[in-house]
Description:
A four-stranded mixed beta sheet has the order 2-1-3-4, with helices on one face. The model has no long low-confidence stretch (mean pLDDT 91). It has four helices and four strands. By secondary structure, it is an alpha+beta fold. α2 packs across α4.
Amino acid sequence: xxxxxxxxxxxxxxxxxxxxxxxxxxxxxxxxxxxxxxxxxxxxxxxxxxxxxxxxxxxxxxxxxxxxxxxxxxxxxxxxxxxxxxxxxxxxxxxxxx
Length: 98
């Protein structure tokens, strides 16, 4: 959890994709997240966290569905949504916090 605190405590926005490989999210969202990361460059971080490998964190954050996207900045949750999102939507959302 200490590493997670460092991750979300950044002064730049951090978009986290909580996913589960066993649900097939890995392959379907990879191009979307790659496009988001490319569009935002060093203005934001894009991170994927596998809920099955981070069960304590997922439970603490009450991650119930996959994928769940959360945007953090300065340690504060700014936005959260469960369900697939397109690249343009995610880019626009993160840019609000740049």
